[in-house]
Specification:
1 helix; mainly beta; five-stranded antiparallel β-sheet
Length: 169
């Protein structure tokens, strides 16, 4: 896709670069950055920083097929100390749902945290919010990876096979 008719972005562009190009504040401005290439190609609102933008109409949306291993990295200008994540996900019949996350901190600590059960809702675009206990953690950098998922599938148009739908956080 193109931004301002001048910059052409292809699949795999790091979301933090897109944020810079569209003028989103960053570390120098006192705001966290969210980097990663695991997002739905060609959809500006699907980049990883959308998980932290306080806009309920946007979400970090992963690619199609298995989401396990999809990663976004949050870098904060100051130390983050937390004992839980407040996680909002779209849980309709058109989105898969994460069931566990791997959190990797800047000191190398890795914590796998289960996500409380989030049932599928009938309403398209429905958002479920849960608190995910993490134990006490502190870090400036938190790498968040999908450790497991409850896959929701759809029939692929050309082959007739099943495709796993994206996760939207």
């Amino acid at each position: 896709f193109q931004l301002s008719g001048r910059v052409r972005l292809s699949a795999g562009v790091n979301g933090v670069l897109v944020d810079e190009l569209v003028g989103r504040p960053g570390l120098a401005d006192g705001y966290p950055t969210v980097s990663g290439t695991d997002y739905l190609n060609g959809v500006l609102e699907a980049r990883p920083s959308s998980a932290l933008d306080d806009n309920p109409k946007t979400a970090w949306t992963t690619k199609f097929d298995s989401q396990v291993g999809a990663t976004a990295t949050v870098t904060s200008p100051s130390l983050l100390s937390f004992d839980r994540l407040r996680l909002s996900v779209i849980n309709d019949r058109e989105h898969s749902v994460p069931t566990a996350l791997h959190l990797t901190l800047d000191d190398g600590v890795v914590r796998t945290v289960p996500i409380p059960e989030i049932p599928t809702a009938d309403e398209l675009g429905n958002v479920a919010t849960v608190d995910v206990p993490t134990g006490q953690l502190s870090s400036r950098v938190v790498r968040i990876s999908i450790a497991s998922e409850r896959a929701v599938t759809t029939k692929e148009y050309f082959s007739g096979g099943q495709r796993i739908l994206p996760i939207a956080i």
